[in-house]
Amino acid sequence: MNGHESQHGIISHYCEKNMTAVCKRLLQTHNFSTQDHIRDALIKEGFDDISQSTVSRLLTKLKIIKAPNVYGKRVYCVIETTNPTYIDSEIASQIEFVTHNNLVIVVKTHPGSAQLIARIIDLHPHQEILGTIAGNDTVMVAPCHIDRINDCEQAVCLSLGMI
């Protein structure tokens, strides 16, 4: 490999990291309903030669999900996996209540939001949570130990940014 190829690789790696950071910032500050809208925003940010497949790879790399906003429109959302989840008002507004019956925790959501909420819980494993099952508007969370159901409920609420 000559010096030019090595330098090109460094420049390419830098541009990719910068594009990823810009894409994440855009997704955190705007509501995008299509990958074309994300692509257009990245072009306006100076990334001229970006394809839809590049946008798709960025979304996968950033672990982006599509979730309904407060108006019911599905938009791309950033879910942090290394830090505690910050649930913004758009996602938190999808949760109606959290309760338990001494056997299982139930998270009641608006229709169509349960899988998103279960995914958020699953992205933040906790020793008190055995697993989740999601339907359309209900998430059932199995505790590791039913004698510590209150601790499990608290862990669920913590993972959803409710406490």
UniProtKB/TrEMBL annotation:
Residue intervals passing through the bilayer = none
**GO MF, one annotated term:** arginine binding
Keyword Transcription recorded: yes
Example GO CC term: the record gives:
cytoplasm
Which is one Pfam family of this protein?
Arg_repressor_C
InterPro entries given in the database record:
Arg_repress, Arg_repress_C, Arg_repress_C_sf, Arg_repress_DNA-bd, WH-like_DNA-bd_sf, WH_DNA-bd_sf
Q: Does the keyword Repressor apply?
A: yes
Main location group: cytoplasm
Give its localization.
Cytoplasm
Report domain Arginine repressor DNA-binding positions. 21-82
Which residue intervals define the domain Arginine repressor C-terminal in the entry? 97-153
Pathway annotation: Amino-acid biosynthesis; L-arginine biosynthesis [regulation]
What are the recorded Gene Ontology BP terms? L-arginine biosynthetic process; protein complex oligomerization; regulation of arginine biosynthetic process
Q: Which UniProt keywords apply?
A: Amino-acid biosynthesis, Arginine biosynthesis, Cytoplasm, DNA-binding, Repressor, Transcription, Transcription regulation
Family statement: Belongs to the ArgR family.
- In its UniProt entry, what is this protein called? Arginine repressor
Which species expresses this protein natively?
Photobacterium angustum (strain S14 / CCUG 15956)
